[in-house]
Specification:
This protein has about 325 residues and is of the alpha+beta class. It contains eight helices and twelve strands. Strands 1, 4, 5, 6, 7 and 8 form a six-stranded mixed beta sheet that branches. It has a four-stranded antiparallel beta sheet with strand order 10-11-9-12. Helix 2 crosses helix 3. The longest helix has 20 residues. Bound molecules: ligand DP6. Ligand DP6 binds next to helix 4.
């Protein structure tokens, strides 16, 4: 018997960085993300008679080749869900993304969300029981990879402690672009970064700063104050990167071209009094979000930055 599920990626505007509980992935601060519906992970589970679960790439999809460490982490989350439901049977676990691994977005949020959804559906069907609520499935997913709990809600998802949920805000249809500064695998994974930031002297007050920005960002979005939203999201990713740079030992993700692009974008805002929201995750690549009526600006920025950098522009020439 076979089951399949898919789930979208998300990009955080207020970042999850630092954990109160490493076992359960309870965050040090609340985070707010925008769900990227066009970037999906797909998971298929098929019952098997093998002695253990086996991961395989999903056929007929953009190939996702998980390395040994990633396969182990993915399979161990399946095991966690099986233990949660007290289910002992084995599965073939197949997965893929509709976006290239090199598009500058970590696929862990979408893939852990899709796996949790699929495994919950499969096991509940096999055990003949009702599906838990979306909140409960999201909370299970969080324990595999924290940021995945936000991928169950759209367009904006708020994750506070054990629960994530939708927050209804204007700007429910944004256009996304990534500027790829490098395709190289990062040296410090975001999971390792959550540990490392606790050594920064800036970490003690981080939860208060994040909460203040979260409140201010929600208020700005509610008022449709796009410029204020840009200011807050900009300050927020710099705050997270300041934690990395001031950790002991210090580490960081910025490359010279990250600075060059950020400088171009800030100057763009200064000249036009308008522009995209700008953010960076634990990596050197830069993510932009535009309002739908900024489609011409999207094209203009893509044309300018595209001369020098590789871009991921899923909304180029599209009207969505
Ligand atoms: C910088 O969810 O990847 O992208 O819970 O250890 O799996 P684990 O961490 P992960 O952390 C994501 C960190 C971030 C910011 C964010 O998405 O909020």
């Amino acid at each position: 018997m076979k089951w399949s599920a898919s789930a979208p990626a998300n990009i955080a505007l207020i970042k999850y960085m630092g954990k109160k509980d490493y076992e359960k992935n309870l965050p040090s601060n609340a985070s707010l993300s925008y769900t990227l519906d066009h970037l999906q992970s797909f998971v298929e589970l098929e019952t098997s008679t093998e002695a253990q679960d086996i991961w395989q790439p999903l056929p007929n999809h953009e190939n996702l080749n998980l390395n040994a460490k990633e396969q182990k982490r993915f399979l161990s989350h399946l095991n966690f869900i099986k233990r949660y439901f007290d289910y002992n049977g084995a599965f073939y676990l197949r997965s893929a993304n509709n976006f290239p691994a090199s598009c500058g977005l970590a696929s862990s949020a979408s893939s852990f969300a899709a796996l949790t959804q699929c495994a919950t559906e499969a096991i509940c069907a096999l055990q003949n029981k009702a599906l838990p609520s979306l909140q409960q499935i999201s909370a299970l997913s969080r324990q595999g990879s924290g940021s995945s709990c936000r991928s169950f809600f759209k367009s904006f998802a708020l994750w506070e402690s054990e629960q994530a949920h939708t927050v209804t805000l204007p700007y429910s249809h944004l256009l996304h672009m990534t500027i790829l500064i490098t395709r190289e695998q990062k040296k410090v994974s975001s999971s390792d970064a959550h540990h490392a930031v606790t050594t920064s002297l800036l970490f003690a007050d981080r939860p208060q700063r994040a909460q203040m920005r979260l409140d201010n960002l929600i208020a700005a979005l509610q008022k449709k104050d796009w410029e204020q939203a840009y200011q807050i999201t900009w300050q927020e990713f710099w705050d997270m990167h300041a934690l990395f740079e001031t950790a002991n030992p210090t580490f960081g993700y910025f490359l010279p071209n990250s600075f060059a692009v950020l400088n171009y974008l800030r100057t763009f805002w200064q000249l036009h009094h308008d522009g995209p929201l700008i953010t960076m995750d634990a990596g050197p690549n830069i993510h932009l979000l535009f309002r739908p009526e900024q489609q011409t600006m999207y094209q203009q920025i893509a044309e300018n930055l595209g001369k020098k950098f590789q871009l991921f522009t899923p909304h180029l020439n599209a009207n969505d």
